[in-house]
Prior knowledge:
Blueprint: E1 3-13, E2 19-30, E3 36-40, H1 47-54, E4 62-67, E5 70-71, H2 76-86, E6 87-90, H3 102-107, H4 116-126, H5 142-154, E7 160-164, H6 172-187, E8 191-195, H7 199-203, E9 207-212, E10 215-217
Parallel strand pairs: 3-8, 3-9, 6-7, 7-8
Antiparallel strand pairs: 1-2, 1-4, 4-5, 9-10
Helix pairs in contact: 4-5
The protein binds adenosine-5'-diphosphate and magnesium ion.
The site of magnesium ion has 4 residues, from α1.
Protein name: Putative ABC transport system ATP-binding protein
Keywords: ATP-binding, Nucleotide-binding
InterPro entries: AAA+_ATPase, ABC_transporter-like_ATP-bd, ABC_transporter-like_CS, ABC_transpr_LolD-like, P-loop_NTPase
Amino acid sequence: MTIELTSVGKSITEANGEVRELFSDLDFSLSGVPTSVAIMGRSGSGKTSLLRILAGLDPRYSGEYYFDGEEVGRDPLKLTRLRWNSIGYVTQHFDLLSDRSVLRNVMFGCPDRRNAKARSLESLERVGIAYLANKPVNRLSGGESQRVAIARALTKHPRVLLADEPTGALDAETEEHILTVFDDVKSAGTSIVVATHSDKVAARCDRILYLVDRQLRCD
Ligand SMILES: Nc1ncnc2c1ncn2[C@@H]1O[C@H](COP(=O)(O)OP(=O)(O)O)[C@@H](O)[C@H]1O
Ligand SMILES: [Mg+2]
């Protein structure tokens, strides 16, 4: 799996109509053996915005994005296909369907419809909450919801896992468990890009990048 961002820029329009550049001329590449990368940076520096571009959710950027050597472009169908087949994305706010069970939510992440249930149970097992499978997600704690979101992202065995502050709602012990899950996921061939404020999470990654001054820097 290779990911390459070349000269990528992203501007946003503030509520007062002012246009602000979050990043510009940003280069990023991920290739070779499965790798984990931490993206750190102040709140508001654009970490989530960058992950959304990588996830194929935001076509409104300048520059180029290549996945496995092919330009991703802005075609919605192509973006959806990329996301559906290759990318697991754990969003900062989990984005679960609140009126459905844990299992149903996780099954929504699995493109392999015929085996969705078995694979979803396996993912839930992996993050340690298989016993919650039939519980409605609106009855879960923040940490449990976070693990449902992680399980959902893993059911497809993605080529790359994008995780936005994936341990923000977890206690230290559960965080450690999830970091071990991420280590296993990487060993099984999936690269990981994680936006985090946690030094502990970052220290477990192969590379740490900082989003500062509208650029990604090594330190
Ligand atoms: N669609 C949008 N419209 C307007 N402002 C946005 C939009 N998305 C993000 N922002 C703003 O862009 C900045 C960066 O946001 P974000 O990418 O969420 O940063 P981070 O994840 O590093 O905290 C924030 O100031 C946020 O309010
Ligand atoms: Mg964020």
